[in-house]
Amino acid sequence: MSDNVMIVTTSDPLAMPPEERRIAAFNLLCELRPEGWNEELLVSDTPVFFSGVEAAGSVYCPFCGTEIDDWLSRELCRLEESDPSMLTTVTPCCNRQTSLNDLDYDGEQGFGCVAIELWNPGDDLEPAELQQLEAALGVPVRVIWQRI
Predict the structure, then answer these.
(1) What's the whole-model pTM score?
(2) Which domain holds residue 56?
């Protein structure tokens, strides 16, 4: 049987809400999904890439729709070898500037400096619950489901 991990991260990959807001959002998510376990609040000075792993699909240029999976792999390696906060890049197909966070991913994926992980929390968040988390954290968030 596989596990499902809900990852709630900031929509802005460089956002760093104050510690009290991070803790408030963490506690709120744990209250909203008490059946979840292995909860963890992740904080990094540089953006971390969160993907759906097995659920991850292809990646596409946000401008022309060209599949750019191989290019993304190289860009992620480049990111590790340089400044991880430099998410700005130029697409290989259109030669247009964008952020790695703004590519069109099959399945929700993205970067963030702050994330809350919760294993097997049950259902996805309802819109009202998502709004509560955004209010607690003070910034817009995205939910990424990772299947392990």
Answers:
(1) 0.88
(2) 4-147
Contact yes or no for 47/131 (Cβ under 8 A) = no
Compute the chain's Rg from CA coordinates.
Answer: 16
Q: Please answer whether residues 25 and 133 qualify as being in contact, where contact means their C-beta atoms are separated by less than 8 angstroms.
A: yes
Distance CA(110)–CA(126), nearest Å, equals 20
Task: Say how far residue 43 (Cα) sits from the centre of its chain.
Answer: 13
∠ CA(141), CA(78), CA(67), 5° rounding?
A: 70
Query: What 3-state DSSP class applies to 54?
Result: coil
Helix residue ranges per DSSP H, the chain: 19-32, 69-81, 127-137
Q: How many domains does the chain have?
A: 1
Phi-psi region of 110 (alpha: psi -120 to 50; beta: other; left: phi over 0): left
pLDDT one digit per residue (tens) for the chain, 148 residues: 789 999 999 999 999 999 999 999 999 999 999 999 999 999 999 899 888 765 457 899 999 999 998 998 899 888 888 776 789 999 999 999 999 999 998 877 889 999 999 999 999 999 999 999 999 999 999 999 988 8
